[in-house]
Amino acid sequence: MKAGIVINPGTPVADLESVLSLADQVLIMTVNPGFGGQAFIPEMLEKIRTVAKLREEKGLSFDIEVDGGIDNETIKLAKQAGANVFVAGSYLFKEDLAAQVETLKAALND
């Protein structure tokens, strides 16, 4: 069993600082939860950077996951900000599923 924390776009990172040491994973929602196909909220990149910095400063090892608006461009930005787990939904089904998965993999390896 693993412990995870989810932070929505409107929730400050400070609200989760006291429990980070208990987490195996922190999910940063990069859209407001509710429905698929929403656009990635660019301001969430700063939250990813902040959580990654806290992880480093505190010597922790949790994964940073992002969910919402992930495509071949936003996946690169999220990775650069410090995320290492990515949830893609709508993007995968725009065209051939296997081809879209390969596009995301290639974007991560650029």
UniProtKB/TrEMBL annotation:
Gene3D superfamilies: Aldolase class I
InterPro entries, per the entry: Aldolase_TIM, Ribul_P_3_epim-like, RibuloseP-bd_barrel
Keywords: Isomerase, Metal-binding
Isomerase keyword on record: yes
Single biological process term from Gene Ontology: carbohydrate metabolic process
Superkingdom to which the source organism belongs: Bacteria
Any Pfam family hit: Ribul_P_3_epim
GO molecular function, one term: metal ion binding
Name used for this protein in its record: Ribulose-phosphate 3-epimerase
